[in-house]
Structures are given as structure tokens and as C-alpha cells.
Amino acid sequence: TRYSLSAKIFGWSERRFWRQWYFLYKTYFESGIDEKIVRIKGVLGAKFRPLRRENIIAKVDPDVSVKSRVISETENYNKLQIFRAYVQMIAQDPTVNLRYAEKRLGKLSGLKQDEINQLFPKTIDELLAEEENDNLEANKLATVRATDNHQVHLYIHNKLSDTPAKYAHIRAHKKAMVVIKENPSLVPPAMNEMNPTGGEGVGENALQLLSGNKKMTPITE
Question: What per-residue string of b and e applies to 164-187 under the rule 16 or more CB within 10 Å gives b?
Fold first, then answer.
């Protein structure tokens, strides 16, 4: 309790400092003129990145929150113990996303994001979903492929801002999952064994059923 109270008091002054820091940049940092250079240290070495007004000043002024390292490390340690025990308990469930659980355990263990990215390189579905996000962000339609991992795609697409194309694409993924659930014979047996929830992809026959056209393989919505 003693350390917690002191940490909170120091946090109040830190919060006031960083609010002042932000509003000074908002007032005096000119767009197209001023620039700062930061050096980012990571697993692959240091890299330099320029910061301009649009990289610092937000459209809506952010809230500032400061928490003592002593408090945050204690909270993270408790979360790590609870989450680790929970993952061990549910690990046998075939529908559990163990890849996310492993990444979360790494973060709670204190690993930096670039270290986690090196341990868990992006999958093909993650890369494809991120490419599709560029079109969906511009409100353009994207295709649902026969080999899509729908769970991964839904997770990546949900990070986008709201657009009609995003919701249409998400509905198409959900529709594909429903077709697989109701018509497992439309999916190749090997694919069913790989992911019984239908996350690995949709068979060609299922895509034809979804599209309503026997000559069409990819579907969009």
C-alpha cells in the first residue's frame, strides 16, 4: 500500500508533464516545416524514423495514463500465472486459437512486440488478409478464397475502421463457415481433418454453392 500510494502521486506529475508536452507540440510544431528523428532499437538492429506533425498530433487529443512499473509488473505477473494455467486447461480443445494464446503469453512474459513477431512470423492467411484490408479500407470489395482460414481473416479484418465493404466481406466469411458447418461433404476430407471448424478454407463446391453460380469459384459480397 505504501509503494502504491507513492507511485500514484508520482504518476500524477508525470501525467501533467506529458499532457503539457503534447499540447506544446500541438501549438508550436508546424506541418511541413518541423521534423524530429527517432532511433528505434529492435531485434534486427536500430532504425531511424522521421516524425512529423501528423505522426504526433491526433485528430482527437489522446488521454494520458501513467502507471508505476512496480505496479504494472506485479499486475502482469498475476495475469501471466492465471492465463498460463487457463491455457493449460483448455489446450486440448481443438477450437482454441493456441497461436494467439502463445503470443499473449509472450507479451505477459515481457517480450517486446518485434521479438514476438520474430518468434511467430505472419502466416500466409495473415498476409493475405492484411492485403485485403487495403482494399476494404478504401471501401473496395475483396474475394473470399477457397483456401482462406476464416478465423484468421475475421480477426485481421475486425481491426479495420467501419466501411460497407468490410461488413460485406465479413458476412461472406461467416456465410462460408455456415456452409461448411451445414454441408461438410462439400469440403475435401483432408481439409476437414486439418481444421474441423472450417477455419482452413472452403472447398470449391462450397464456393460454387455460396456464389450461386456453378462456373464461379471465388465469391465476393
Answer: ebbeebbebbebbbebbeeeeebb
- pTM of whole model > 0.70? no
Alpha carbon of residue 82 to chain centroid: 22
Q: What is the DSSP letter of 184?
A: G
Hey, what's the cell of 45? 538492429
In this model, does residue 100 exceed pLDDT 50?
Answer: yes
Q: Comparing C-alpha atoms, which of 197, 142, 139 is closest to residue 163?
A: 139
Cα separation of 117 and 166, whole Å? 26
Q: For residues 15 and 10, what is the distance between their CA atoms, to the nearest angstrom? A: 9
Burial of 136 (0-12, 13-18, 19+ CB in 10 A): buried
The values of phi and psi at residue 40, to 5°, are: -105, 120
Residue owning grid cell 501528423:
54
Give dist(CA 156, CA 135) in Å, integer.
13
